[in-house]
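Internal tracking record. Fields below are filled automatically when a chain is submitted to the structure queue. Please do not edit lines marked as system-generated. If the sequence contains nonstandard residues, flag them in the REMARKS field before resubmitting.
Queue: standard
Priority: normal
Entity type: single polypeptide chain
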Amino acid sequence: MMEMIEIEALTKVYKGPFSAPFVAVDHVGFKVKKGDIFGFLGPNGAGKTTTIRMLTTITPPTSGTAHLMGYDIVTQPNEVKRHIGYMPEKPGFYEEMHPWDLLRFYGEFYKISRADSDAKAKELLEMTGIYEFRKRKVKEFSHGMRKRVALCQALMHDPEILILDEPTGGLDPAGTHEFRELLRRLKKDGKTILLSSHLLPEVQQVCNRVGIINRGRMIDVGPIEKIERKANAQDFFLTIKGLRFTDAILEQITEIPGVKFVEPGKDHGLETLRINVEMLEQAEVERVAQQAVEALVNSGAGVVAVLPPGQDLEGAFLALIEQSQMENKQNDVQKKSLGKKHGGVGK
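SYSTEM-GENERATED OUTPUT FOLLOWS
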């Protein structure tokens, strides 16, 4: 199937005159196929909007490449714009204009004839349920109605690709439901949609594929089912009775082949140990669990239970974000340690 969006090592570094460079997006890469609703998921400040601003040619990348419909965002920005519709998180309009006149204006911008522009404006305003308000000034519109106008604007030139930044942010439950139905309809009409959101239910209910970003880096990309399975397979929990974890025990379990990190905790008065492993195969997870249990029993612990997390997308998302943060902390510790060994280098 045709790749509508292809991103490779896309990076954005902001350099201030009086501050250290800030890496907002760090070698991001993923692909979106024709007909996908791709969820670009991450917490606030993860780099979603910066990535979208690069894809829509608003912000130039520091390095890396991105192609939409085969067109390069740096060398062919006008071609990219012809094939995409962009709905920003906070759309801005000429407040004194009516939706009808706004859409006509954008039709002229894309050199659409007046007759075709009127027909398209009527179609879109009816689709979004605001045709009866077509002659009301935008400044009188609610937040939800403004979002609908913004979607109409993004669709005015009938683009193949829609890029939506937090499209349901601030909407009430009814408005959110209606917006989801609009997205499903657009998918049926053949649109390819990249949807940025920090709202897990939004992504889970309308997207068939998802990419998770945190601190400017991609954590995972794939079908929602794959990411849920991956998180489930990576983590399991041991509930322990009669033992406080010593550094020696934690180090022994960390050294089991396949273990990425361990994290002690508590649950209803019992000690728990979260173990994160590299392998996805269930047999490998079971092997690590068995070795961890043996190590704890040999240390005098009473193992009460071995539990997989059984997560949905929300659990998977939180687990992957937590894992990313844990790995970042470990990398920071390693860098500081190396710096001390080499006389302060890397501080």
